[in-house]
Every structure is written in structure tokens, then in C-alpha cells.
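SEVERITY: medium
COMPONENT: batch folding queue
REPORTER: lab tech (J.R.)

DESCRIPTION
The queue accepted two submissions in a row. Attaching both inputs and their returned C-alpha cells so the on-call engineer can compare them side by side.

ATTACHMENT 1
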Amino acid sequence: YEDDDETPESAVKSALTQIEKRKYDLELTSRCIEKIKKLAIVFQGKKVWVKER
């Protein structure tokens, strides 16, 4: 995550919001693909946070 004041949890939430806002799944849904996993992945050194929506 980029902001020093941002927590990993807030960075994951922000990433999921960005996925929705920028409609990254649009091309897949336009091809009638319905099962799409939206993952937010945040790194801090060797620590990793992953959340699915």
C-alpha cells in the first residue's frame, strides 16, 4: 500500500472499491462470464493481505 498512514485493512478496502469503480470485470461480463473472483492483494514487506469480494 502506498500511503504511510493507511493500514493494510484500509488498503484492501480501497483496492476492492477501485475494482468496482473502474469496472475491471466489464470485459469478462460482456463475454457472459458470470463467475468472477475479485481479489484485493496488499503487501507490506513479507506480509500479505488478500480479500475477495
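ATTACHMENT 2
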Amino acid sequence: MRVVIPGGGYAGLICALRLARRTRGQVAVTLVSASPWFVERIRLHERAAGSEPVKRELAEMVAGTGITLKIGRVTRIDPRGEVLLGDERLPFEQLVVALGSHVDLDGVPGVREHAFTLDAASAASLSERLPALAARRGRVVVVGGGLTGIEGASELAEAHPGLQVTLLYAGELGGNYSEAGREHLRRSLTRLGVTLEQGRVKRLQAGSVELEERSVPFDACLWAGGFVAPELLRQSGLSVNARGQALVDSYLRALGHENIHVIGDAAAPVAPPSPMLMGCKTALPMGVYVAERLSRLSRGQDSEPFDYLDTAFCISLGRRDGLVQPYRQDGSPTGWVFRGRLGAWLKEAICVGVSWTLAAERKGLHFFAWRKTGRKLSPPAAQERRLAA
């Protein structure tokens, strides 16, 4: 069996490592990445604040596993069995799309022209500007009240006390948290000197965020207003949702394509567990599941549908504070949280644990696991009929 995995992030890398080790050369695994470096996206808010990234080469991370690594950008996916990498054609029997997501730069006018993001290159550019801005009490507006925006605002404010940091959000800040979690979140942001403003953004202009009834001036803007999947998925003929994510069944197969699995941020399950938040905590389970499924298929065995239960929401609030919000079986937040230095320690332990997990997978140590609901799902054919109706 020939398996091609476009995407060298969390989902694609752990899928390639697990599959290669499980099948021991019986399956030809090719991992394709646009960059030769593995990007720790869960630490990009730290990079924006000025920390030096730990650079890890993908070639080193897959060395000795039998994985063929190709560096280049995928230009086309032919669902009939071929991936185009520039002028090179990569045939496949099974395709695992793990192309991730990127910040939505076109959903609001002016974002592409006037904002930084927490993509790797933009975060590095922002970090170079911040010291000079902090020296003159510059204004930084972070747009987005989700995990990315909160972590970004906290990190910038703590690392550069001279900055005037504003977190601009729509809706409820910390809506997925318990009352204790929301209280700690607001208290921590206030302690760091972050100004909170609520409003819906109409457009960005040079030097200001334009809301419906007012404008918020800035010297630099960090946009964390949402993520979308690569347009390549739609262009390849896969069924996608409004954010460009491929719709997948309970086996994480693209609808209508039994030989194409989609994992990580690029996937949107149409059956429980659905919806699944984008991020490392869902990318790793999806990558491991598909690796195990393909390993079983190579031996002529079937597998159970993918099952996942979100257990907690973890967020850093600078280097010395954090918040971990556990969830109940029904998905509601518990009334208690881990916070402060303990929360920061737990968040850092999780980040370090991800690196250890990938290193262990390379050596054939498969200890990664996740909590499951135990629900029995309807067959994928029934799911597709229900979606069509």
C-alpha cells in the first residue's frame, strides 16, 4: 500500500510516524511538507512576544523510520490517485490530507494589508517591531476573543510592559468556561494591563480598527479572528464547509472518497464527535486514529469509527499564569478550574508532552491516548444520506 500524507504539522507527522512504525516497511509512507521545519503552532504566541523558537527539522524527526520526506507545496490533488508537488507526481492508494489551517485574512477587509497574525513568519516580524513600540508606549490591538487572541494579548502584555495592549472581541469572552474560569481570565488580563473592548469589526485601515460605531487606533494589530482550511481542498473536488474544511465521515474519510482521509484542522466531521475545535488536541488523536486504521486495512482488518471526547480547555496567560478548564462527559464545564501558577505549569507540561509524544512515536513507543465517549455511531452511508436530506 502506498500512502501519501500532505501536511507536516501535528496531525500529519504523528500519523506518518505511527503508520510507519506499525507497518514496519509493509506500507510505503510519504510525508509532504511545504517547509523543512516543524512549526510548534501552540507556541507561536510566545514567538510573537520575542522568545527564540526551537527549530526542529522534519528530516531529523522522521530519521530511521522509513518515511520518505518530500519538501514542497502541493499544487493539486487528483482524488483518483495522484498528488502534484510542483512538477513531481506522487501516486497513492491511500491519501491522508493533513494540510491544517491558516488565519483567515480575507473575511474582513483590510486584514491582509494591515495586520500581523500568529502564522510563523508574521509572528517573527511582529516580535521584531515590539521592543521599539514598547519603548514609546505604543498601542497594540489584538482582535479575537478565542484561545489565540487571549494567549496573544497575555503574552505580549507580560513580555513588553510598556505596550498598551487592547483585546478586542465579539460575543462573550471565555464563553466555554465556568464562572470561576471567566472570573480568573478577566482578573488575569486586568493584572497584565490588557484593556478589554467589545465590538464587531467592519474593516481594518492603516492605524485603526473600524467598528460599527467607533474606531480603535493602533500602532500594530494582531489578528486572531478565525482560521480557514486551504482552498486546495475545495479545488480538488472535496465537499467542504464554509471554512473550507473537508466534510468527513465517522472514519475520517472525505465524503464520497473511501481512499482519502482528512485529519486535523482541515477536517470537519459530519457525525459525532462534531463539531471539533481546531487545534493540536484534536489533530493528534485524528492522526493516530487514521494511522491505526490504515495499518489494520493493510492487514485486511476493519476498524471502529473515530471516537473523541473533549476533556479540558487549556490556556496560558503569560509565563506565570494559566487556566485549565475541565469538561464533564456531556461537554459542559465543571465548576472548578486549575489556575495561576498551577495552571501555567499544567499548560507548559502539555506543550512539552506533545514534543515528547512525537519523539516517542519516532522510536516506536506508542503511549499517546485520548478519552472517548463510547457512543455507537451509525454507518457512514447513513450519515451521508442524512446530510443529503
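NOTES FROM REPORTER
The radius of gyration is 21 Å.
No errors were logged for either attachment.
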